[in-house]
Amino acid sequence: MVEKRDMSPGTYTYPVQIPVSSSLPPTLHCNFGAVVYRLKAYVQRAGVLTPNLQSEMEVHLVSCPSDESTEAVESIVIERFWETQMRYMVALSGKSFCVGSKIPVSIRLDPLAKVKVYRILVVLEEKVDYFAHSKKISRHEGPKRFQLLKAEIPGEQRTAILPITSDEEDAFENSPLKKLFVAGEGDETQVPSLADPLGPWILEGELQLPDCQSNLHFSLVHEKALLAISHLLRIVIRVERGDDDHLDSKGQRKLWDVIIESPLHILSCRCSQNHLPTYFADGTIDLQASHQCGAVQPILVDHGFHHHELSDLERPQHSGSAFAHTIPQSPTTPTAPVDLRSAERALNHSLQFARLVSGEINAAGARPPAYAEVVTDDD
What is the pLDDT of residues 145-162, one digit of tens each? Predict the structure, then answer.
C-alpha cells in the first residue's frame, strides 16, 4: 500500500488486511531449513537526505485440518499372524494427533503356542528430508526416535512379562504392564487373562507424545515446501517361541522381535483447540500462550516493531528507495512473560483495528501537545 500525503505531527494508525492463501505451507523451523513468513513495512519520506523507514516481523502460519477431515476419528487396525506362534492385533484410535497429545492404543495378543513376551517397545520415528534445485538434490537428516513406551523387567536374567507366572498376590501390581497400561474392563477381569498362558492378552492404554521442547516437529508434505517431515510409529514385541526349533549356543530358546509399523500424521500443538499465536501491541509474539502441548519454557520474540512510534523503525544506512535495502534480521532473545497489562494492550489494539475497519474512527489520531503547553515557567 503506497500513499503520498502531507502529514502533520501526530499519531496515525492504519488497518492493514493481507489475504493469506490456504495452499501455503505452514511455518516450520528445522536444523537445516525453515519455512518463514515475514511481514515488512516501508515508509518513504520526501527529501534527498531524509532516510526512509522500514521494519519487519515474523508471522506464524498454522496448518489445521478442515472440519470435514476424518483422520482424527478413523482408526488404524493392524491384524496379522506371526508364523504359527501368535496372532496379534494393534488398534490406534485415530490417524492424526497433535504434538503433546495422547494416542489411545489397544494391543491384543493371541498365543497359538506356549510363547512368552519379554518386552514391548513403542517408538515414534521422525524423518526430515531437504530438497534444493527443483527437488533434484536432497539431503536426508538422520532419523530421530522418541520412545513412547518400554515395558520389560530389568536384570541380566530373562524374565517374561507375559504371561504373568508369579504366584504372589501383587504380581500384577508390580508388573510393568500395570504402570504403563490400564485395562479397559478393570483389573479383576484382566488379571486371569494376563496370567493364562493360552491368552488372550489384552492391553489398553494411552501413549504420551513429546511436547515442543523435545524438538518434535509436525508432519509436513507440501509441494511448495523444500522440506518434508514424516512420522512412523513402530511397535516392537520381543517374544520367545513355544517350540525348540531355534536354540542358541547355550541351548536356550532364541528371542525374536515382532515389528509392527504404521505411519502417523502429527499436527501442530496449536491445532488441539485451534489456538493461534498472540501478537501483542508492542510487537512481541507470545509463543507460550499459543502452545497447548504443555511446554513450560516461555519464549517471547521481540521483533522491534512498534505500531505507534515510527521513530523506532529501523533506519537504513543510505538514503534512497526503501525497497532496495536489505533488512537485518531481528535477534531472538528470551524475555520475561507478558503480564496482564500487555494482554489488555493487545485487546485494545484489536478493538482499535475493528473500529478503524468499520470507519468509527479515523486514521489520524490526536495531535500531541506543544512544548509550551507542557513545560511551565516554574520548570
Answer: 999 999 998 887 888 899
| Cis peptide bond N-terminal to 200, omega within 30 | yes
What would you measure as the largest C-alpha separation in the chain, in angstroms?
106
User: With the CA atoms of 311, 287, 279 and 331 taken in that order, what torsion angle do they form, in degrees rounded to the nearest 10?
Assistant: 20
Q: Is the pLDDT reported for residue 229 higher than 80?
A: yes
61 CB neighbour count, 10 Å cutoff? 17
Closest CA to 64 of 265, 214, 226, 215: 265
Distance CA 229, CA 219 (A): 5
Entry pTM: 0.71
Residue 162 CB neighbour total at 10 angstroms? 25
DSSP per residue, 79-141: EEEETTTEEEEEEES-SEEETT-EEEEEEEEEESSS-EEEEEEEEEEEEEEEEETTTTEEEEP
pLDDT of residue 298: 37
% of the chain surpassing 70 pLDDT: 72
What is the Cα 184 distance to its own chain's centre? 29
Q: What is the pLDDT of residues 295-307, one digit of tens each?
A: 544 333 333 333 3
CA 334 to chain centre: 19
